């Protein structure tokens, strides 16, 4: 791991177009070599986009491996490049919503696109935040992640095992909650809600926390800019009437929003995660 981090540090000095192309080349090789993850991605794509011909789904999966590997190498820029370089490379539209964040409790809802770390950096260049953090098994990698994500401002990193109370305390202290809402963590605190028409164990925490705190929910999505020119971080208007009176309906609306964004940049969504691992009682699994 130390050698990998040293390599990432060396590579972050490269011009972004060269680094991006290198990441894509490595990703093409990994698509061929890592059969297990390739099969997961292809399974997810077949369930979510059955109307797309198989040949096209395979092309999306290959581009996903390229995008994901590229995002890992480019993370060195996020961790070590000067602030001025980051501000040149990150295009924020229409801007980090500081006024809305400072006006009251805020949830920044960030789906799992491969550039999601860029969204976090865009926020941290302007203000601090709190978020859930899963400790890495490798201590060297864990320390590198923590240093990289906290080098501009302190972040309150919370453990999922601690439950919701630390999140509520941090939000009461004025920190926006940077939330990743779309992974399968099992049925606890989740409901089966359609995602591309497939029942998916989906956290209801965004709706429950918004209902408890009165927080506004502002989606944010980070994607690559074309031509290896950097990244786009797009903040959407606060979700209207969220969660409303029906937490399950609010969770459905959240998934529908994520679906729409995935269709805009399908190769950049995190397809190698077993999104449909948890199944309703009696239903067979999808991943073999």
Structural overview:
With 288 residues, the protein is α/β, with parallel strands linked by helices. 48% of the residues lie in helices and 16% in strands. The mean pLDDT is 95. It has one domain. The longest helix has 27 residues, at 54-80. It has eleven helices and nine strands. The strands form two sheets. Strands 1-9-8-2-5-3-4 form a seven-stranded mixed beta sheet, sandwiched between helices.
User: How many independent structural domains?
Assistant: 1
What is the number of helices? 11
Structural class: alpha/beta
Question: What is the terminal separation in angstroms?
Answer: 30 Å
Quick synopsis:
With 288 residues, this protein is α/β, with parallel strands linked by helices. Helix content is 48%, strand content 16%.
Observed structural traits:
single chain, alpha/beta, seven-stranded mixed sheet, two-stranded antiparallel ribbon, 11 helices, 9 strands, globular
């Amino acid at each position: 791991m130390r050698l990998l981090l040293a390599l990432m540090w060396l590579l972050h000095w490269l011009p972004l177009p060269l680094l991006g192309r290198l990441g894509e080349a490595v990703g093409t090789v990994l698509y061929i070599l890592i059969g297990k993850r390739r099969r997961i991605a292809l399974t997810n794509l077949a369930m979510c986009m059955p109307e797309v011909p198989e040949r096209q789904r395979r092309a999306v999966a290959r581009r996903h491996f390229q995008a994901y590997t590229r995002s890992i190498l480019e993370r060195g820029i996020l961790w070590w490049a000067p602030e001025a370089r980051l501000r040149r490379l990150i295009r924020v539209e229409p801007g980090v919503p500081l006024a809305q964040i400072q006006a009251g409790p805020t949830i920044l809802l960030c789906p799992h696109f491969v550039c999601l770390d860029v969204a976090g950096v865009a926020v941290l260049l302007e203000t601090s935040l709190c978020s859930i953090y899963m400790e890495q098994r490798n201590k060297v990698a864990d320390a590198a992640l923590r240093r990289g994500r906290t080098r501009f401002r302190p972040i309150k990193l919370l453990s999922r095992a601690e439950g919701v109370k630390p999140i509520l305390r941090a939000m009461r202290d004025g920190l926006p909650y940077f939330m990743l809402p779309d992974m399968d963590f099992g049925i606890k605190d989740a409901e089966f809600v359609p995602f591309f028409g497939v029942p998916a164990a989906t956290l209801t925490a965004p709706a429950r926390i918004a209902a408890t705190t009165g927080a506004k929910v502002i989606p944010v999505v980070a994607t690559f800019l074309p031509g290896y020119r950097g990244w786009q971080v797009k903040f959407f208007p606060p979700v209207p009437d969220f969660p409303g009176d029906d937490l399950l309906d609010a969770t459905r609306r959240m998934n529908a929003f994520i679906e729409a964004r995935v269709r805009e940049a399908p190769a950049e969504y995190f397809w190698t995660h077993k999104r449909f691992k948890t199944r309703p009682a009696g239903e067979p699994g999808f991943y073999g």
